[in-house]
Structure formats: structure tokens, C-alpha cells
Amino acid sequence: MTDRVDQRVREDRSPLSPAVLAGAEAFARGWATAVIGSSYVPMTRAEVAQHLQDLTERLVEALFASPFRTAPGHEIGSRLVDAHFTGTDTLGRTVQLLGDDLLVELGFPGDARLTSRLSALQGALAAGYARALRERTLAEQEAIRAAVLDARDQAESMLRASEARFRAMFTEAAIGIGIAAIDGRILDVNQALQDMLGFSVEEMRQYNVRDLMHPEDAGSVWRLYDQLIAGECDHYRAEKRFHRADGEQVWTHLTLSLVRDDHGEPQYQVAMIEDVTDRHLLQNRLRYQALHDPLTGLPNRALFLERLGRVFNNRAKHVRAGLCYLDLDGFKVINDSLGHDTGDQLLVEVGRRLDHSVSGEGKLVARMGGDEFVILVEGSSGEQDIVDVADRVLTELEAPIRIAGHELSVSASIGIVERQLSGTTSADMMRDADITLYWAKADGKARWALYDPERNAREVARFTLSATMPRALERGEFYVEYQPLVRLEDSTVTGVEALVRWQHPEFGRLAPDRFIELAEETGLIVPLGRWVLRKACEEARRWLEEFGDAAPFVSVNLAVRQSRDPELVRDVKQILDECALPPHHLQLELTESAIMGTADEPLEALRALCDMGVRIAIDDFGTGYSNLAYLKHLPVHELKIAGSFMEGLRAENEEDPVDAQIVATLVQLAHALSLGVTAEGVETPAQAARLLRLGCDTGQGWFFARPGPPENIDSLLRGDL
């Protein structure tokens, strides 16, 4: 039999290094020492050692195989049973020895990847071992059951022989067997069952089957039992716990069969009981490892999601729950600068503090991975409950953490979601907590943020705009409106500002403040700005052809990213040439902060445009922190004073002296530098009059005209309005 087992185990071997083979051989010797004597095996000691060495090599090959498979673990567990390594301690010693010594002997202690693979192979080996042992046990059980049935059906002349065979099997069977009357009185038990439960035959005969009920037995076990003694079924199988005489409990696999008399009436019940305590404990250990974080010992993502799913599955009306989704601030810096070992110790301490600060019934702290943790609070009464939890966590993390001579300060950002469970799902709750976590980080870190449906709707709309913007330009959803720039002295239209709009199919007409920032972020501002520039120059050429010297120049806003585009000068020149528009009919507007913060290269581009004849204007002047001495060196023709300074000049009867003085100062500064001045946000006749008195050259605002289609400018130029 050993030849057959060895031959099957050696199939599909891949070469191993001499060092690994030596480690495998050393482990096999230790394995043989551990299991010899725990089972009766028809082999010599040398044959046992050789057999286990072959199994070890097969296991090591699977450990290093690519791709990794657990099937060899199942095979090895089965081969152990085939070779009769079936003692009660054999599996436990084998699994423990594999976990404790194999990687050490192979020279890879602490290797996370191999440790994970070894855990999987241990589980597979235990499963293969249990399956093979169970199949052998079931075969024995069926043989015993057949013997019991044969005893009933044999002729009277064969009764003594049949009884002898049954008694031999009953007495020598490796599994526990008990026979009881149909009313539940225990009539006989074999030696294996006596050893398993620690009771003698006489003591067992004092019990009824129902006396062996365990408080935590599943209700289905006893429902099936009632059906069996009523003759409604012939047998059933179940996992069941029993109390031993010493007070300990034994996990067993129970098969209960019914023996009928010659008339088919229930007469006896026969129980075959297999001790599976070691296997059950191993399964519990493997399940714990699968559902807990190996670093912090906290529940992991899988267990958390399982618990959250149960909360939603068992929810009743008006039941509430809350989540705190937590991420450490600056953890990557600590990890990268002080090393992963320090980072791991930090995570362990953070996990301990979280578990300490958030405890009690209905609360769960789990590590989701990396430096992310989550806290589940079941049965909350409102948002304040979860806010209190978040405040406790932030307070708990304030104290420095000392690790390896370093005193580390750590903070966290927390996203909070609390709601009634009806009408939502666990996936919705996790998504909203994750979104809110990033709000907390964006708002400054070391704080919590509460989920806000309105803010989320705005974020979703923002994302939708960002995603649809590239195609919107292709589909022609953008268009340009124009607002006149009027000379205050005689109300003549000298220029127009081109203002882009977006006619969105879902959100309707959108002003620039809804999408220009997104265009900057996505990089679409460059092609969009180029498109606006071309449309504006085409209109300016049309006005030039129709109105001649009275045609206005067109002013186009230039975003920061456009001003730094290396193709800016070439694009402007190409568009002017294609539209046959003289350069002085084009004005480019940059914000004060953008033009003051330009580096040498963008500034050179502006100088090149200026030399070409294009006008340059500073938009929203006065709202930034300009270096006024630097202003005189810039290639600028016009200052557009921000509309915020116009508010104090709007009233009919009086003006704000501070705003008036600021505007007067800015006008004097601009004129001293030979720059024109345009006042933005002019809305009343009083404003226009005051601005003329203060020396402003041009005005722009609703008092003159709102932004509109180019036809409105045509009407102004013809004097129709």
C-alpha cells in the first residue's frame, strides 16, 4: 500500500533547491518523531520516515508552486488516512508542526507570502484528512448498519453467528456505538463510546437518550429525532455536542439509525458517534484567522461586512445604525520615513486605543486594510450618538505614541453616517461613509465630517459635469455670450467681453462658475479656451467688416493653465490669421493672481503677444496681493477693477467713502502707468456717474447690458437699444 501512496504523491514534481530539500528532510524527521506511536501504521520506522519525507517534499513543492494551488494539501491529508495515520492526535500534531516548524526549517521564517500559503495548505490538508477519515468512517457506519439489519433478517440458524459478528464489530469499532430502546432507554454502549464520554456501561444505562441533550443543540437535531422514533425516517446525521463525565464537552458527528422488527415497526435505535473535537477546534481556529486582522487582532473587512449584512438582514422598522469610517492622517509619511515595522507597531497601538475607546454591546471596531478602520454602532438613537463616538476616538488619539525611541503624533479623519436602516442598503451606507471620510480629509484632516445628502448631490453633479465635459465640446453644447465694455465719457461701445456658457442636456444653462474650475482640473480648459477664442475672433471679424472703425475689440478670458500652455502664442497667431483679425482687436484677460504669479516662461508668452499687438488686461484687479512695483514691468494695457469695490458706489444718494477712495487710488495708479481702467459690476446710473468722476475710462455691467447673443451687440452698435 505504501508503494501506491508514494507513487501518487511523487507525480508532477518540480525541482527544489538543495537547501530547501535539506530543510524538508529535517522537517520530515521531526514529523515522523511527532506522529510515530499516535497511530497504528503497518510500516517500519524507516518506511514511515521515508513516506513522510515524500509528503513533505510534495507539500514544499506546492508551497513554492506558481500558480499556487491548495489541491496538494487535500491530497496529502487523504494519503495520511490511506496510510492509517488516523490516531486521535495525529492531525493536531501535524497541523501544529507545519505551522510552527516548516518555514523555519526551510529558511523562510516570517515570510508573509509563504505564511499565507502555508495557512491555506494547512486548511486544505485538514479538510482532505477529515474528508478521507469521514469517508472511511461512513463506510464503517454503513457496514455496522448493514450488520444490524442483517441480524434482523438472518434465519434463526444463523442468529448466533450473526450475533457474534455484530458483537465483534460493536466491541472493536473505532467509533462510539450506542443502542437504545425505542422509548430512549440506553441499553448498551461500546468501549469507544465509554472512552469518548468518560462514563461506564452501567452509568450510561441510567440515562435516557433525551438526557444527553445539550443546551445549545440546534432545534433541528431533536425534530429529526422525534421523526425517527415515530418511524417517519430510518436515519439522520448531525453535528452534536455531548458533556463528558469530567465536565468538558465533546464535538461529535452523530449518525442515528432505526432498527425495525419483522413487521416494520420501530424496535431499536442505534447511534454511531465520531469524535470530531480536534477538527472542530481547527476549523474554528482557521475561521478566526480568516475573519481577523493578523496584525491588530481586530475583526477584518470580511467579518465587518458579514456583521453589517446581518444588521441589515435582521432590521426591524425604525431601527437605526451608524458608521465611523476612519483613516489616519499622514500615515504614509511615517511608514516611508521610519519603516514598515514602525508603521505596523503604530497600527497595533491605534487598533488597541480604538478597541479601548469604543466598546460595549452593539459596537464593533474593524480594520479595513492599510490605515483604515471602521466602527459600527448598532441601534443608535441619532447622529449625536455617532458624533460622540467620533469625538472619543479623536480624543483617544491625541496622546503621542512612543515606538522604538520615536514619539509619534497621530490624528485621524472620520466620515460619519447615521440613519434609519429601512430604505437603504449596507452598500449605500459604506459608500456614503467612504465619501464623507474624504470630505473630512479635504476639510483639513484631524476632524470628523457628517454625511450631507445635499453636498453629496452637488459632488455627484460635479462629477457628472466632469465626466460629460469632453463630449460636450464635441457635441456643440458650449456657446458664447457677449457683454459690452462702454466708454463712460460718451457711452460708446469700445469692446465686448466674450463669456462662455454651457447648455447642459440635464442641468440646463450653466454659468462659468459651474464648470471652469472643472475644466482647469481636467485639462479641458486649453481646448475649450481655444474654441472660445476662435468664436470670439470670428465675431470680432464680422463686426469689423460690418461696422468698420466703430467695431469693438473682443476681450477673452485666459485661464491660468492656458497662460502656461507652450502653444499659446502659436494658437493666438494662427486664429488671428485664419480670421483675418488685426491683433489690436483682441484683448486677453488674466486674473490679478495669475498674471502676478507667472513664471518667466509664461511672462515671455505674454510679452510676445503684446509685441504682436494683442491687448493684455488684468481682470478683478484689487482682489489679490499684487507687487505694485512689479506691475510697471508687465506687458499690460488695461486694469479691470473688481466689482466688489463697486458696491459702495451703487446707492443713489450716498457713496461709501472707503470704496470711493480705493477706486480713486487704483485709477490714479493705472493712469500713472499709462494703463486704461475698466470698472466691473456697474449696475446703476449713480455708479456710472461716480466712476466717471473718479476717472474710470470704461464701464461694464448690467446698467449697460447683460451678457447676451452677438445680435444684441449688433443692436447696440447700430444704436437700436
UniProtKB/TrEMBL annotation:
Domain GGDEF residue range list: 319-453
Domain (PAC) spans: 236-288
Give start and end of each EAL domain: 462-721
Please name the Pfam families in this protein's record: EAL, GGDEF, PAS_9
CDD domains to which the protein is assigned, alphabetical: EAL, GGDEF, PAS
What InterPro entries is this protein classified in?
Answer: Biofilm_reg_signaling (IPR052155), EAL_dom (IPR001633), EAL_sf (IPR035919), GGDEF_dom (IPR000160), Nucleotide_cyclase (IPR029787), PAC (IPR001610), PAS (IPR000014), PAS-assoc_C (IPR000700)
Domain PAS per the UniProt entry, residue ranges = 162-232
PANTHER family annotated for this entry? BIOFILM ARCHITECTURE MAINTENANCE PROTEIN MBAA, DIGUANYLATE CYCLASE DGCP
Tell me what this protein is called: PAS domain S-box-containing protein/diguanylate cyclase (GGDEF) domain-containing protein
Q: Which organism is it from?
A: Lentzea flaviverrucosa
Taxonomic placement:
Bacteria, Bacillati, Actinomycetota, Actinomycetes, Pseudonocardiales
